[in-house]
Amino acid sequence: xxxxxxxxxxxxxxxxxxxxxxxxxxxxxxxxxxxxxxxxxxxxxxxxxxxxxxxxxxxxxxxxxxxxxxxxxxxxxxxxxxxxxxxxxxxxxxxxxxxxxxxxxxxxxxxxxxxxxxxxxxxxxxxxxxxxxxxxxxxxxxxxxxxxxxxxxxxxxxxxxxxxxxxxxxxxxxxxxxxxxxxxxxxxxxxxxxxxxxxxxxxxxxxxxxxxxxxxxxxxxxxxxxxxxxxxxxxxxxxxxxxxxxxxxxxxxxxx
Amino acid sequence: xxxxxxxxxxxxxxxxxxxxxxxxxxxxxxxxxxxxxxxxxxxxxxxxxxxxxxxxxxxxxxxxxxxxxxxxxxxxxxxxxxxxxxxxxxxxxxxxxxxxxxxxxxxxxxxxxxxxxxxxxxxxxxxxxxxxxxxxxxxxxxxxxxxxxxxxxxxxxxxxxxxxxxxxxxxxxxxxxxxxxxxxxxxxxxxxxxxxxxxxxxxxxxxxxxxxxxxxxxxxxxxxxxxxxxxxxxxxxxxxxxxxxxxxxxxxxx
Lengths: 256, 254
Known about the structure:
Chain A is α/β, with parallel strands linked by helices. Chain A has helices at 18-31, 52-68, 85-97, 118-127, 149-158, 169-179, 199-207, 223-232, 237-252, and strands spanning 2-7, 33-38, 73-75, 77-79, 104-106, 131-133, 164-166, 186-189, 212-213. The longest helix of chain A has 17 residues, at 52-68. Chain B has a single domain (5-252), classed as Metal-dependent hydrolases (TIM Barrel, Alpha-Beta Barrel), CATH 3.20.20. Chain B is 34% helix and 15% strand. The A-B interface holds A 26-27, 30, 136-141, 170-171, 173-174, 193-201, 218-222, 224-229, 231-234 and B 17-21, 135-142, 145, 191, 193-197, 215-227, 229-231.
């Protein structure tokens, strides 16, 4: 069975859509996925610079999804490091400490090198939870707050005790894989972009299977396609087990 | 085993990444393992060669006599010799379709010479495959940034030469709505991905004009074929069968 480190819900509002959750779960099960990390609602996200109110809405949506399907959804607390620090720390308390979320999610509000992350990463370190950070090297339309893998590696060097899942293997590319070679606290997720051949096995060859983790980016992507890209990498059964399940179980503190 | 026709695969080398399965033999093994029974193969080297026909001759020789492959000749209709190369592809090299790469070969699909090629394809009763892109533009090499071919240009070519059977290769799912309900305008699904990819494509493209394509070996064929493995309740069996084989057979004129 598979753990998906990178999914989203899309129906807007505080309350997740019951039909969407059922459909997502049915498609996930059909593909062999047993648990999914919900990183925050795509529509309620408020664009690249979410306000505290929008962050609250996204996280409330995730909390309710977790409560609706506790054996399927694992929530991550959506963050914007540009928001007031006291709000963000209170949101971590509400969603992680009291709400049961198991990680933090950062997207494209500010670059990973921005020092406004520090208090939030320090709190993640205290709690022993991972963060998931969007990254991409774009030939076209890189956002002003959109981090490159090199910038995520910078964050990882500043917080070497925090496990960081760097998103989007296809977007990160070979350069991105090399950016994190010497930051062992960073894993790369397989989600994002087209299923371009050669990258999964390249990442495993360079980083080791312990640092490559399955993610789909559903519903932007398709569970079956994203699983197929990892299978297409022709990994050994040991390595495939780590990518599909073992690494996620380890960093999320689930039973092996 | 039911037929599965893959309308867009390549053999050859890609300058930006060491791909697995670059020869017809290696690729055939990967495709057949996923259930593909016939693959339309074009030369990958033709994308960057100054004369793509050199790549046609090499690939045609290597797949000659292999009934698994349908050879697709690659042409650049702005080159002076394109007409004789097209004739050679169809008459001597066994091509049953032709393919163009307008954005990599430096012309617009609205160029009159592209229409002339489409007219030739219509006259010879073979499809013309239009490669919209080779890779997600966001991941292009910093020195080789090649915007995709606009679907509006494909529609314009279709309007100019309605008798030509056109296959749009590598359309994104969001682009497919441009193709809806246009007779003689097909699309393959190698770059169509959203939630449940085939369902998303079928929402935007008429089911009788949608065909399977993997874009292998640039995409993992194991990933692309998963688009056809949706839960049974998602699609009528006849629709799935049409996308797997029937539509492509009609497109090929067989």
